[in-house]
Inverse folding.
């Protein structure tokens, strides 16, 4: 049986994807393939999490802004996997819990282990600057201990830097370089454990540190 890790890099536009030298090396060696996508509108996070994980556009799902914090009404990768008897996991921002497991309580839901939920094994955070390095280490531990068939890893540091400094800034690019380093360490380990890896983003970031609109910097993302 194939196992899958979906790495969702929040806020990484395609214009900085060439800074991911390790992923580019896999592509040049014939061990990976790169595509460029145009995100749905509005090009903001919560609606696009729903699009990526259910296949529905924001207008179809009704998740059309970041303030809508109800549970998804759609079939998601998590719910389909669970109905098929597969184990699911997410190391992700707490909005993912709100969409697919229900209301989030930081005292109770920082760690989730419940086979009745759409996300069986969860490790959730709520600060945008929570270190990507910690997230990948947590992911590695969940993979070792729980062996899920589907896992979502969702990072926020690139998005956070983009909002602070702009999508064309050196500090934004530096966060891409850092995440590339962490991925080069962990992806080979996960491949050895039988996982296929997909890396993508929800939206990009314009030069002023904004997204939500229809510009190329905001909508063009790598896969």
């Amino acid at each position: 049986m194939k196992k899958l890790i979906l790495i969702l890099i929040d806020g990484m536009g395609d214009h900085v994807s060439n800074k991911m030298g390790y992923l580019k090396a896999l592509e040049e060696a014939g061990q990976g393939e790169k595509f460029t996508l145009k995100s749905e509108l509005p090009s903001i996070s919560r609606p696009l999490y729903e699009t990526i994980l259910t296949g529905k556009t924001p207008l179809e799902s009704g998740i059309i802004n970041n303030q809508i914090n109800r549970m998804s009404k759609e079939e998601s990768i998590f719910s389909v996997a669970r109905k098929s008897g597969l184990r699911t996991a997410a190391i992700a921002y707490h909005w993912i819990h709100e969409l697919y497991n229900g209301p989030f309580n930081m005292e109770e839901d920082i760690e989730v282990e419940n086979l009745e939920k759409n996300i069986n094994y969860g490790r959730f955070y709520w600060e945008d600057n929570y270190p990507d390095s910690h997230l990948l280490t947590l992911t590695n531990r969940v993979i070792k201990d729980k062996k899920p068939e589907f896992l979502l890893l969702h990072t926020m540091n690139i998005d956070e830097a983009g909002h602070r400094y702009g999508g064309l800034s050196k500090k934004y690019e530096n966060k891409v370089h850092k995440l590339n380093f962490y991925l080069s360490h962990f992806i080979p380990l996960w491949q050895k454990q039988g996982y296929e890896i997909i890396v993508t983003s929800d939206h990009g970031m314009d030069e002023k540190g904004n997204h939500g609109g229809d510009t190329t910097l905001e909508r063009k993302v790598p896969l």
The first strand starts at residue 3 and ends at 9. The chain has nine helices and eight strands. The chain has a mean pLDDT of 97.
